[in-house]
Amino acid sequence: MSAKIRLYVDHLLGPGQSVELTREQAHYLFGVMRLAVGGHVALFNGKDGEWLAKVAEAGKKGGKLTCQTQSKPLHMPPDLWFLFAPIKKTRTDFIVEKAAEMGAARIMPVQTQFTNSERIRQDRLQAHAVEAAEQCGGTFVPEVADLQRLDRVLDDWPETRQMMFCDEAEVGSALRLAAQEKGQPWAILIGPEGGFSDRERARLSGLPYAHVVSLGPRILRADTAAVAALTMWQQALGDWL
Amino acid sequence: MSAKIRLYVDHLLGPGQSVELTREQAHYLFGVMRLAVGGHVALFNGKDGEWLAKVAEAGKKGGKLTCQTQSKPLHMPPDLWFLFAPIKKTRTDFIVEKAAEMGAARIMPVQTQFTNSERIRQDRLQAHAVEAAEQCGGTFVPEVADLQRLDRVLDDWPETRQMMFCDEAEVGSALRLAAQEKGQPWAILIGPEGGFSDRERARLSGLPYAHVVSLGPRILRADTAAVAALTMWQQALGDWL
Question: What EC number(s) are associated with this protein in UniProt (chains A, B) (predicted)?
């Protein structure tokens, strides 16, 4: 028995556990996906792995599912933070989606000197991360943090966490990531579309835990750079085989 | 003297060369970007590198630029074809944009057994490739081919061209691309959202020039897979340092 529909729920999951659906979830499962009583869904909550659940009650405003068996154990991503400077709305949504799909553990929008946006909709971005996890078969949902100023984030930086810092002004200095030790806490920082300011670049370059990496000879849009940087890191130090 | 605005033109470029603008180009430069006579633009045509040009005449329906000096030589991408199965419109546009940004030399939409779309707007996709080249500072524009059936493309496949074939069903068989010889003609093939059919997978796996590559433990959307695959290839065999 397997389920095609995957749903994130904010609820404990375990054998026989009953899961109440919200109005939106009921609308999605019964209205959009045409599921009925007796149908199956795969549930995950970011903590207990993936569970096969059966529809026990289906209504317009709600419903109830019963957990049956665990279909996947929890697969935690590596301890990787993903920091980026928000850009235009659609591209920001894409960046969050990509970071979740590519296995970032925590997504942190940061405000740089050249960042266009003053604020973000954290709840909206979190919803994109949930949707990405539903789509990509993940059992973990990265937390999307609120927008913080990059300089403040650096002030409080945990010294044991390495940082891969992608700077379009740096060409040819590709880090041999493969030479680094695996299993360490890391972060990836992607600059804004206008690049980092000279002051930011100077500060970042001087940090003992920062490693500048080049993303090739072409200038990449921020959302492309996000996937490229995550690919490089996951291949060298993450959970890609 | 440098120009912030980059424009692709279908015109010869060289010292003193005069370039007539189309109505759309004139609207963009003079209406949207507020450029005036004496202003500068960077031009490229995919063949002659990038040229600094000066606005000689500016009108609502057209205009004229005069080429001055070459600001960048032609940078050809590696001999890499990028094959993908078109999906929903917006994602297809993104895939073409990403492939152009990431340095594919030729973009080939292919129809697989599980491809949703029966046809594409080739002119529209080509325009996206041009725009991506304008944005990413490239001097080359990949050609977007018309939609072809995958089995026909394989029937006519040049035997000397290697193929990196990304299959979500294959986990853990990451090819050591780095062990391959550099400077060879290659192609990347990304499957449709629904994956390849069993028949397609069997045929692809049996091809002597096909190399199956895994894109990690999570299922990636097609546009994410495109960037991830291009990153892997460019790092191992392409023009990334």
Answer: 2.1.1.193
User: What are the E-state strand segments in chain B?
Assistant: 6-8, 18-21, 40-44, 50-58, 63-72, 80-84, 106-111, 143-144, 148-149, 162-166, 186-190, 210-213
The CATH superfamily of A80-237 is SPOUT methyltransferase, trefoil knot domain (3.40.1280.10)
Of residues B98, B216, B240, nearest to A174 (C-beta): B240
Query: Domain extents for chain B?
Result: 6-72, 80-237
CB contact under 8 A, B102 and A224: yes
- The ipTM estimated for the assembled molecules is 0.89
- DSSP SS3 for B1: coil
The answer to whether the Cβ–Cβ distance between B240 and A98 falls below 8 Å is no
**Alpha-carbon distance A136 to nearest alpha carbon in chain B (angstroms):** 4
The answer to whether the CB atoms of A221 and B103 lie below 8 A apart is no
* Per-residue model confidence as pLDDT tens digits over A36-66: 999 999 999 999 999 999 999 999 899 999 9
Question: Tens of pLDDT along A100-124?
Answer: 999 999 999 999 998 867 788 999 9
What pLDDT is recorded for position B120?
87
Residue of chain A minimizing CA distance to B234 = A216
